[in-house]
Amino acid sequence: MENFFGFALPGVPYGCTYAIVAVGLVLTYQATGVFNFAFGGQAYAAAFVFTLLTQNEGWSGFPAFLVSVVVMSPLIGLAFDRFLFRKVGNSNTTAKLVISLSLLVGIPSLLPVIFGAQNLDDTATIFPFFNPNVVYFTVLQVPINGIYLSTITVTVVVLVALTALLRFTNLGLQMRGAVESRRLVQLDGVNSGRVVALAWAISSFMAGLAGVLLAPTFGNFQSDTYATLMVAAIAAAAWGLLRSIPIATAVGVLIGVVSTILKGYLPTSSIFFSAVLPSLPFFVLVAALLFLPGMRSLDMNRDPLATIDPPPPPTAAASRAPSMDRMIRRAWWVFFAVFVVSMLTWMPKTWEGVFNSGLALSTVLLSITLITGMAGQLSLFQGTLAGVGAFTSAQLANHLGLNMLVGGLIGALLAAAVAVVVALLSLRLRGLGLALMTLAAALLFDNTFFNDASITGGVSGLSLKEKWLGTSAFFNFNGHALFLLSLAVLAGCVLLVLQVRKGTVGRNLAAMRGSETAAAGLGINLTWQRIVVFALAGGIAGLGGVLVTIGAQVANSAQWSYSFSLIFIVLVVTTGVATVEGAIQAGIGFFVTSQLLTYLPGRFGGGSLVIVLFAFGAVQYAKHPEGVLEFQKRQGNMRFERLLFPKEYYALHPTEIAPGTNG
Amino acid sequence: MTSPVLADPAPPDEGGDVLVLQSVCAAYGPYRALFDVSFTVPKGGIVALVGSNGAGKTTVARTVTGLVTASVGTVLFCGRDVTRLPAYKIARLGMAHVVEGRGVFSSLTVEENLTLAFRQRAGRRLLAGNLERAYTAFPILGERRRQFAGTLSGGQQRLLSLAKVLVVPPQVLVADELSLGLAPVVVDAVYDGLREINRNGTALIVVEQQVSRVLELANKAVVLDRGSVAYQGDPAGAGEAVESLMARREAATASAVGHGDDIDDLTS
Amino acid sequence: MAEQALLSLRGVSKSFGGIHAVHDISFKVRAGESVGLVGPNGAGKTTLFNCVCGQLRFDQGEIMFDGTTLAGIPTFKRARLGIGRTYQKVEVFTDMSVRDHLMVAERSRCGEGRLWKDLLNMSKVSRQEMENVEATLDLVGISSMADTSVNALGLGHCRLVELARALAAEPKILLADEPSSGLDIHETAEVAAVLRTVQHERGTAILLVEHDLSMVGEVVDRTVVMDLGSLLAEGTFDEVMANPEVRHAYLGQMGAA
Question: Is the Cβ of A184 closer than 8 Å to some Cβ of chain B?
């Protein structure tokens, strides 16, 4: 028994840190309506600055705490509100999630760009109330030092303060009202802008507090650590239905305690220790998603006054004047022909490689167009599915000597099968619930299959043995075979997506996106529709993964970690998720931009800035939820139309001269 | 159901107009909704806002309370220009808006819904008394006070949003689609409540589909057609104005679409 | 009563956390018959609709439709059996044009969309389908807004779109939940006329929840009154309206007049 407590008690500080973040998530969700994935990023930013000041600048703990947590963190929150979330409609779940994801991805990559790379090991820290090095007393032979007491005290204080804020104060009531409809609270005389801004400041302060408190607990300082922390916190928040602060706290502490107990009792050599134990938070999260009926109705509230917002504009392609449309189509074909001919003739090898990677990535991104753009389902594991395709084909090639084309098809099928399994598990989940389930699936793959050296070849990855790529001259990689293959696969997938969109299934998907209740009431089998669309998207993602593998000659688990799934969705949604072009422009644009950035000097070079650029395209995205490129295209179209085909233009836009009539 | 118990009477009338709209135009993005709308609401008056669907009644209501900002023109509230003021500031000046359809916070309980409104409008000290009055006036809300407003039926949600304004009467009340989804017996109670707060000085703008009923209540009518004012003045003349508009519109559709025959057959 | 009941409810109950939203309701709707369902707010009318359509699972009792017992059958299969409905809180397909709303219904009536047909380009809209859709648009009187996105329509027009969509699926019974709320007097009259037409020409049975009693009186053959989840009265419209209990619970002043 003493042994048991000896294992359990060290888990309490861990558990408390999970709980603090979980409570922060609940607070942000309750007070702003945003499920703030960026909470981890905010925590990281505060800890980063705190450590920078104490360690490199030689500040003492308290002023550094003031600057990083009391001043900087709320300012970050206010900036989020002012520049991002204020512009997004209350009911636009996808936009809110994508922006918070882009911040999660963007912040940790942005910090080194601003401050330069910093070595932040051995974080000095601040512990309020108690001295960390003093053992105050022992419980059942476990020494209780200041770290325990500080963490527990802070958790309790935060728990009580926030519960009181949300449940018993007028401000809390106004926050919860504003989450549902900022306009409706205004009618009650509440300054909703101020209330929401305040909510962001408070929640961001919480994030900073958590970050600074947690830094020492985790020792080695990496943004990845914060991602793991986030999963445990999300799981705890989910068990509290993103509503109950006490339950979220309890589950958070429990996860910490159970982890250390298991760590103590399980033999270190077993598969459980290496694979299952790190995945414990995911299982807790998945269990919440599967068994809590309350998770199914998350984000289902709609702003009763949403109709005041002007309706979303039609896509650029749909609103063109016929003459303009013809012209653009012709121009597009010319452009396409020039592109293909260039690639086959004068294009330098570096740039051919860039475009090939772009085409492969476009295929992966196209799966997001299908599942998110057309079916309205936010899936955060398309990168993982691509990885399934990649590893399957690579394994088949290396072990069975299967041609990558055949192996690729099998890989795509397997990816589709995995997607179907996840779809079946999440049949009743919508919006945020589905996003969390797919995120859990991605993380689970990262921790299990993708982490297993016998499957993914460890750190160096699975190198392709070139002979398995085929015997015919077509696969001579000194020529343009890869380009032609990528182009063919992408074209095939585009055709498939367009065909589906035009047909009955596409129309049913659009109906489902509009209103699931009404779609079911008309006899549309929602379950089947979902399975079909997940399978198709999974297959396309898998094919994309295979293309990437052929191009890179290696399948590496670092290519397909969950964070890339997140980056992918941010990419597509910020450029324009409604159209097929959006995916292609995002895919090719990503690699072209990366390549261009290599010409920049020093810390601005490399891959991290490109992610930052795309992530902070989110600022634009908040203003134009149809996609940044999509918006630019429509603007450009209109300008040219007015110039070239004024007659048709004014026929299409009657309001510009003669006012139309509409209620 | 008893009729609502009411708050202290507002200051006595001084004559003049409490609300003035001057050449107001409004739009939702590219969709224009109002063209050059002008009318006034006399102090303590009741204005009925009628017209067919899409005529712009709801937009007028929203423009008055600041949910939609007029692109052209001015809105004067008690002589003060409120055209560009945000909705919450107009609300604090004494404007209330019962919105079309669901107008409650479904994730808050019934009591929290009322508390949110009463604290802001009447202050914390009067909160308990106001809640009590609301529950007396609408016993069903008292029974369900701990329930989430989202679990109420559609009609009960309407009652909840009406209770907010009937118990703490504002200077001007804009009620959009007043009787929508309410049982006749409740509609009676609501109309009684409106009369009573009007007697105590609240000016009313009532948007309503049951034209004859609202014209009975009103002492001024504004008929809207396709975003413009087609008639304003005595309620007695409004019914006729609506009829002639309808007749003209039907004739227009019949000739334009060419399928008018079957519709005529059906409605005759 | 030789005629077979199309929809029959026997002892249907549903409660939410101890509150009886619907309690022991039994009544029948025969094929081609039009029945009004009226009652005060919160009487459980919409809950009852949700039980019939499958959006809610009822606790007790039995609902039979066209010889099939409905318990355990998912919503979409009930729709395919021939149950169509409109919603009190409007449920339109955001971002979709009015015509496409009807096309979704038309296709679902003819059986499910097949993926392979889409992929082989075999799912183009046929002439016949187009004509059916146009006919329904005309019937409801919304042809002029066929290509408008529903996002740009007001509440009242959305109700008409819902009605048209439900009718395009050619149901055997139409459950209409306050179809006239948000409509002006003329549009209400048109909706009443549409309901009568589909009842008489297509033989569609109608179950109508409505607070506009003049419309109910015009459309229905029989009326059922609910209050506080229970059945209060049943009979012809005039009989029911003369019932003192009904007058007290529902009509108030208007009944007395």
Answer: yes
